[in-house]
Amino acid sequence: MADITAPKLSDAPALRRVFEQTLWRRLVILAAFALAWELYARWLDNALLLPTLGATLSALWSAILSGELPNRTLTSLRVLVTGYALGVGIAAVFTALATLSRWGNEALGLLTSMFNPLPAIALLPIALLWFGVGTPSLVFVIVHSVLWPVALACHAGFRAIAPTLLMAGRNLGLSGGRFVAEILVPAAFPQILSGLRIGWAFAWRTLIAAELVFGVSARSGGIGWFIYTNRAQLETASVFAGLLTVILIGLLVESVVFRSLTRITVQRWGQERT
Amino acid sequence: MNVAPRLADLAGDAASPTLLTLDRVSISYPTRDGTLTAVEDVSLALSTGERLVLLGPSGCGKSTLLRAVGGFLKPSTGEIRINGEPIGAPSPDRMTVFQEFDQLLPWRTVLGNVRYALERGRSLSRREAEAVARGWLKRVGLKNFVDAFPHTLSGGMKQRVAIARAFALEPALLLMDEPFAALDALTRRQMQDELLKLCEETGSTALFVTHGIDEAIRVGTRILALTPHPGRLAATFDVPPGSRTRGTTAFAELEQKIQQAVFADPELDHG
Ligand SMILES: Nc1ncnc2c1ncn2[C@@H]1O[C@H](COP(=O)(O)OP(=O)(O)OP(=O)(O)O)[C@@H](O)[C@H]1O
Ligand SMILES: [Mg+2]
Prior knowledge:
- The structure holds two protein chains of two kinds.
- Chain A has one domain (55-264): MetI-like (MetI-like fold, Orthogonal Bundle), CATH 1.10.3720.10.
- In chain A, 78% of the residues lie in helices and 0% in strands.
- Chain A has helices at residues 13-44, 53-65, 68-100, 102-115, 124-131, 135-159, 163-171, 176-187, 189-213, 223-232, 236-267.
- By secondary structure, chain B is an alpha/beta fold.
- Helices cover 34% and strands 24% of the residues of chain B.
- Chain B has eight helices and ten strands.
- Chain B is globular, with a radius of gyration of 18 Å.
- Residues 1-13 and 266-271 of chain B have low confidence and may be disordered.
- The A-B interface holds A 1-6, 162, 164-165, 167-175, 178, 182-183, 186-187, 189, 265, 268-271 and B 67, 70, 72, 89-92, 94-96, 98, 100, 102-107, 116-117, 120-121, 138-145, 149-152, 157, 160, 194, 197-198.
């Protein structure tokens, strides 16, 4: 057959310019917001209610330098990763069962519709009853917050795979684990990824909320605990510094980890759903 | 025309061994209001080296029949045998080229798709698979696109990859389900010609499904026409090599003959 040649590509400076523009706009909005905060806080002149941006940043800086905030953050992240990994693992098992059998399918559907609407934080009293005050309780509520949305997304992803793609895979004589790992999972990856993303956001919120409720074990407390104790001591600037940390870590994971994962997978494969 | 022809009458070239037989195959789908019979009582035999075309209007059960031969569906009655053995699960020995463009793995490049199929379907090492894959992609004219991801290709190029993948696995039987149906008329013609060339060069045995009479004459050595709803065998036509060239009187005459026999009902879509 005659070779097909690629059409010539021209540079796309226009595209790049748009990108730079959105970045630029974002920076402007952020600066305006910071300025408004600073001015309003100065005008209010009540460090107990609303510290200035400057005071917040310097509180953040000294909390970082003292090592307290990095420690607290690390504690939070350690619990988070444990709970997240456990939740995703259990979700994978549940999805496998649901994909393999009709009973499993029914069970997963019922369980997710029952437990997905239940806020994880509402389970904290039960968790404290069962596991006592400490990391296991936190892990328990995180697992709950991750498990259902991730299982739901994976299951929906498997079911949405084009039948032709499944047949093309079976045509190669694939079956069992290989079929799952090499066809089903990558084919459902857009939904799996968005499930992981939602699961992450839920887990992070749940953890901070749980730590705030949990005002007890001082030595092993995370960022939530940092915020809680500083509020108790009326160190409002440090409370804001803690909140800023929560936002920054959330943003960082979302825009660095998930964004780049999206870029090297589903976007490259043309499966990005917008 | 609902007399089921006997198997003996159906075998094409008596000199070649029979590869595939369908013995009174019916296929139905369970639906909400009962069962829908898509294919009814079809018997046919396909010899090695033959290219049998199933011709019929949309919805007459061509895809259904092809899927059953591929092993993706079980006939409700009747039997499908390949080399005398009942067919089992889908296998790379019967490679299907589907009509839909989404038959390629989106997460693998063009080369990756063909190479992966060779690694899994023919158990080649990665190196061997890559070499064979490159060879076939070159043959279908895609050597400039080996590193492209499927979503960046045109529909015709995707079908070329699927064709390269199917041929690369050297199946005993190639199954093609209207691989060109979703292409524009010009590209379709070109692809038909190129497919014919590949089939002749490799001496492949193929079962090809289409609703286009000209396509059937162009690629097939024998044509079986199906009736609509449910699909049954209506008539058989041999395509002598001389009739395969477009624009010749032999081509036009055969086209006319099939047209009259199959689509005589004026209400039917002439495709
Ligand atoms: N999964 C299914 N469930 C129920 N009915 C089906 C299913 N697939 C096909 N059918 C029905 O079976 C009949 C034959 O369908 P099939 O896809 O085999 O037709 P076809 O000849 O390939 O048509 P086309 O030329 O449009 O591709 C149709 O009436 C269709 O509605
Ligand atoms: Mg069809």
